[in-house]
């Protein structure tokens, strides 16, 4: 209902967005995602993200033009597990080094080192995963015969996410609006729509200001980076 409300109250020029997803299908996607996570012990949780995003995009339209997320679920698996795999390898190497020095540093310092290593891994890996999910999503979104491309880079996006976390913690949450706008501005600035030559309806829609369409789309979903 939230997506339908936001879409209905968002428009570009004189053309409104429309979200035609139903509660029944939304619950079906949710139920499928829950079953998938239960039977795979959360190993296929990236597929749940793919199901959600596919449901959102494939039921959104502007005028007579339909959005479509044209990507396989395996891409979402690699977007999540490749950074985790690299982190695991680095963690194994770090653990081996710590174990080697455990007799000299003591058990307490050893436990503290493991905890700090785990937290550091999460702090570095999750922003990278967020960036990769954002990239593979918007680089595979189609609008009629046209398509979107984002020029964000993984490392710049990751740095913005990580530094936003730091600013929020240091400001006790007071800088949360600033952090959200900072990420939103970066997303919007680097999102482009490549219009097909024969898509005359879309060309007519885009006449006022082509770059403003991305602003309206992001506003409909109220996405953060992961989407």
What key attributes describe this structure?
single chain; 227 residues; alpha+beta; seven-stranded antiparallel β-sheet; 7 strands; disordered C terminus
Summarize the structure.
The protein is an alpha+beta fold.
What can you tell me about this protein's structure?
The chain has 227 residues and is α+β, with helices and mostly antiparallel strands. The protein has one domain. 67% of the residues lie in helices and 12% in strands. The chain has a seven-stranded antiparallel beta sheet with strand order 1-2-3-4-5-6-7. The longest helix is centred in the middle third of the chain and has 32 residues, at 107-138. Mean pLDDT is 82; it is low at 223-227.
Spatial ordering of strands, largest sheet: 1-2-3-4-5-6-7
The stretches of 5 or more residues where confidence is low (pLDDT under 50) are 223-227
Measured between the Cα atoms of the first and last residue, the distance is 18 Å
Return Rg in Å: 21 Å
How would you sum up the major sheet?
7 strands, antiparallel
Domains, number: 1
Instruction: Give the integer mean of the pLDDT values.
Output: 82
Name the beta content range.
5-15%
Count of helical regions: 10
> Which term fits the overall shape?
elongated
- Secondary-structure-based class equals alpha+beta
